[in-house]
Amino acid sequence: MEQLGSKEEVRQAVAQARRDRKTVALVPTMGALHEGHLSLTRAARKRADIVAVSVFVNPTQFGAGEDVAVYPRDLERDLGLLDAEGVDLVFTPTVETMYAAGASTTVDPGTLGTVLEGAVRPGHFGGVATVVAKLFALFMPDLALFGDKDYQQLLVIRTLARDLDFPVTIVGCPTVRELDGLAISSRNAYLSPEQRAIAPVLYRALSEAVRKAEHGQTSASALEAAMAEVLACEPSVEPDYAVVRDAEALEPVELLLVGRPARALVAARVGTTRLIDNVAVVLGGRAPAEWQRAVVHPRPGGPGGMS
Ligand code: AMP
Which residue's CA is the closest to the ligand 1 atom numbered 7? Predict the structure, then answer.
């Protein structure tokens, strides 16, 4: 595995791959790697000759009072995990490398960046879109892989690639979960044992919406009420939203329609830790595998587990 610290090193490594007629897949991360991230590198390995991972805690996507300073970082451990996965290139820039002094140009993701997570975290998706556009410009990857876990982010990036003409295929990958349904996240490490025990209520709420839709409930507001009811079972959990939206634009829907994918999305605070999760919701039948795409994390004690 080659570790790259500068943009020039990235350009050279990518140019070499091009000369060798190899395809390049990029997996952007903020480090503190876990099974969710590793699932993306494995999916990349299946699809491209060269797998590149970036590890960069991007300050511009954190708002005032958010956790950029204390965001978990362990580069040595991350490098060991990526090496063991057979990753070819890992880009570990500093903030100063990524953002030249005086950098002032940003990417505005438009309306999609202002709803749900964007409403609770103003500026967040602008920061995400800007850093991902910069990574795309540097790597010019054939494909880039992102988790369904951050579903709105995935949509923002698909839209960005389309609108800014990046010739990259965006691949969404299934959410990796703990055995009790909790979506694996670097932020789960902040949870106390008591909070960790109640955190799966988010997935239970989402699963209730899926179940009701499977049984023919067409009303989005009824599904949202069902999710709110499940979340209320844990009074210490403070929901920011629990909604059913159109799966492509995240616009509100009144009724689920056959063949029209919808998405249930939840964000809630468990103590001071904010968790997000989402699932596909399909009327009148089980979500097709490519919509639902939840897989159970097989090793609770593995990376990103509860330790
Ligand atoms: P992050 O390091 O949190 O910025 O995440 C980097 C990438 O990993 C993003 O595309 C996330 O959506 C993805 N990711 C994070 N957690 C999971 C998970 N539990 N399952 C699948 N992908 C994930």
Answer: 29
CA of 8 to the centre of ligand 1 (A): 27
How many angstroms separate the CA atoms of 263 and 19, rounded? 42
CB of 40 closer than 6 A to ligand 1? yes
**CA angle in degrees (0–180, nearest 5) for 15-136-93:** 80
Residue 26's CB is within 10 A of a number of other CB atoms, namely 28
Q: What is the pLDDT of residues 125-154, one digit of tens each?
A: 999 999 999 999 999 999 999 999 999 999
Measured torsion, CA atoms of residues 76, 78, 80, 86, in degrees rounded to the nearest 10: -150
Model confidence, pTM: 0.93
Instruction: Say yes or no: CB of residue 183 within 6 Å of ligand 1.
Output: yes
pLDDT digits 0-9 by tens, 224-238:
999 999 999 999 999
Ligand 1 centroid to residue 166 C-alpha, Å: 21
Just list the catalytic residues.
37
The Cα 264–Cα 224 span in angstroms is 8
135 vs 160: CA distance, rounded Å = 12
| Structure tokens given for 261 | 């994918």
Q: Label residue 32 left, alpha or beta by phi (over 0 means left) and psi (-120 to 50 means alpha).
A: left
Place 259 in a pLDDT band, splitting at 50, 70 and 90.
confident
List pLDDT tens digits, range 261-297: 999 999 999 999 999 999 999 887 665 554 444 445 5
